[in-house]
Design a protein that fits this description.
CATH architecture of the largest domain: 3-Layer(aba) Sandwich
Order of helices and strands: HHEHEHEHEHEEEEEHHEHEHEEEHHEHH
Largest sheet: 7 strands, mixed
Radius of gyration: 26 Å
CATH topology of the largest domain: D-Maltodextrin-Binding Protein, domain 2
Shape: globular
Oligomer: single chain
Distance between the termini: 104 Å
Structural class: alpha/beta
Number of domains: 2
Length: 376
């Protein structure tokens, strides 16, 4: 019996020893929070996919900031970044999808592109299910303690930039700011032929600026203003970089509705021109510029897309974006002291909000008259 008791004790000792050997690893695995387990799984799959294809705004500064910043954080995943005007990128995406090609994972662009082109073609997936990192999902890091969405469903187009729209760019050798700081001063005969208008028909800054005029003046006054500003224009153009180069070269005096994305990129490159952020009489409005994130459905690299989306919405990603673009972002933990003061919304000032789907979509009446005046 004594030998039998010794054998049982030895057997129990071996069981305890095995448990002690295994328990730390098992307990560690079980102690990981759910988000970490999900993140590890998605990250492992993303590394196998190897890359994410991202459409974003044009410019070498933002391309470099996004590509290098993400690669430093995730060296096993490559970013294929394609920069361009949002409307043109959406047209390319539609042509691909019509042909059965699905090559794009994420689009960072203006909310107008999302509302007027990407959403109607059914190309967007809900964003929130793809957000995993606590520093992204915790609303305390975001202005208003909430995510801001442009679409009425509040699912597809996440706005991460909120800044004051620059109304005009101008050549200070030809124009004094107090000559153009009221909306109707642009109709002065002395500016006839000296104004460039950023075409209001495609999605972009021109689209929204004319929409704003329609809202602040009302339809009757806006229709008259549209006709009169059209006769003032020396040219109506869609190349947003070229428009600013013309102003910097002195070819034209005033640019109506400059692209904030192109403007800030070229200012950082050393081009010389001045800006008017707000009109004295009618103010301005807030815009997402090109700072809206959209997750493309039927994406070829869905896991890498999820990793990228979480990174670009993290503090690190938003800081990289803000520095490269001079954009005021929605994250509260990203500083603004590097930004031009005129892009940061002033406390207590009521701005027209251009980002909502309601304010993006034009009435049939406005669409008709703009096509009559600016159609090609």
């Amino acid at each position: 019996m004594k030998n039998a008791g010794t054998g049982i004790r030895s057997y129990l000792f071996l069981i305890v020893l095995c448990f002690v050997s295994v328990a730390p690893t098992s307990a560690f695995a079980q102690s990981k929070p759910d988000w970490q387990l999900k993140w590890d799984k998605v990250l492992s799959a993303a590394k196998k996919e190897g890359k994410a294809v991202v459409f974003g705004p044009p410019g070498e500064l933002i391309r470099q900031a996004i590509s290098e910043g993400f690669s430093k954080a995730f060296p096993n995943i490559t970013i294929e970044y394609s920069g361009g005007r949002g409307g043109e990128q959406a047209t390319k995406l539609k042509a691909e999808r019509d042909g059965g090609v699905y090559s794009v994972d994420v689009i960072l662009s203006g909310n107008q592109t999302g509302i007027t082109q990407l959403k109607p073609m059914g190309a967007l997936d809900p964003i929130e299910p793809a957000l995993i990192l606590p520093e992204v999902t915790d609303r305390k890091y975001w202005r208003g303690n909430a995510f801001e969405f442009s679409d009425k469903e509040r699912k597809y187009i996440l706005v991460f930039v909120k800044q004051v729209k620059t109304q005009l760019a101008y050549d200070p050798m030809q124009v004094k700011p107090d000559e153009i700081d009221e909306l109707y001063e642009l109709l002065d005969p002395k500016w006839k032929g000296k104004i460039v208008i950023n075409d209001p028909l495609p999605s972009g800054a021109g689209f929204v600026s004319f929409q704003w005029i329609w809202k602040v003046l009302g339809p009757d006054k806006a229709k008259d203003y549209y006709k009169r500003i059209r006769t003032q224009a020396g040219v109506v153009d869609r190349d947003q970089r070229r428009q600013l180069e013309w102003i910097a070269q002195g070819k034209y005096a005033i640019l109506v509705a400059p692209s904030d994305t192109a403007l800030q990129q070229l200012l950082q490159r050393g081009l010389k021109f001045d800006v008017l952020a707000e009109f004295k009489d009618y103010g301005s409005y807030t815009t997402a510029s090109s700072g809206a994130a959209m997750l493309i459905n039927k994406a070829p690299h869905p896991n890498a897309a999820t990793i990228f989306l979480n990174w670009v919405l993290s503090k690190e990603g938003q800081w990289a974006w803000s520095k490269a673009m001079n954009h005021a972002v929605q994250r509260l933990d990203v500083p603004t002291d590097h930004l031009p003061p005129y892009v940061v919304p002033k406390p207590g000032v009521k701005y027209w909000i251009s980002d909502s789907e309601e304010n993006v979509l034009r009435s049939s009446e406005e669409e008709r008259i703009l096509k009559e005046l600016f159609g090609r």
